[in-house]
Design goal:
four-stranded antiparallel β-sheet; alpha+beta; 4 strands; 49% helix
């Protein structure tokens, strides 16, 4: 009889152990699912807030970031020139290596926080190209038609 009572107690304890284990597994599974949902919602919200469903223009990132200016447009040219690590001559050389032609205009610009030289070049086929050069390392950032910018800004 002692064996029967002992077996019954062991069976009851085993059943309670299995039941406790199932509850713990359920809690862990529910916790993992809730964690994944929270993470997904957070990532979705931050992506939407960052882009508002639109792509950033320009899509490139330069090696020099321009901090937000506090005092408006006044003194911007001098402030940008102080940040640039290459001069206009090197920017022109890099642009002409990518797009051969006659340089019409070169300007140091802040494009959405990116410091770039904009070099307009007239090609042999009379197209005007706008070449964006990183003002930190002379890398080609973008090549497009010179009137692309004006059309997208309107």
């Amino acid at each position: 009889m002692d064996i029967g009572i002992g077996s019954a107690l062991q069976s009851k304890r085993f059943a309670q152990g299995v039941s406790t284990m199932n509850v713990m597994q359920r809690k862990q599974t529910i916790g993992a699912v809730l964690g994944a949902l929270t993470l997904g919602a957070g990532l979705l919200g931050s992506a939407q807030a960052a882009g508002d469903g639109k792509s950033q223009s320009p899509a490139y990132q330069s090696s020099i970031k321009v901090p937000d200016q506090q005092n408006g447009e006044r003194g911007e040219a001098a402030r940008l020139a102080a940040l640039a690590k290459i001069d206009a001559t090197r920017a022109i050389s890099a642009a002409q290596a990518q797009v051969p032609g006659a340089v019409l205009k070169v300007a140091l610009d802040n494009e959405n926080g990116n410091l770039v030289y904009s070099v307009e070049i007239k090609t042999a086929s009379n197209e005007i190209k706008d070449v964006k050069i990183d003002a930190g390392n002379a890398a080609i950032m973008h090549v497009g038609a010179a009137n692309d910018e004006e059309e997208t800004e309107e």
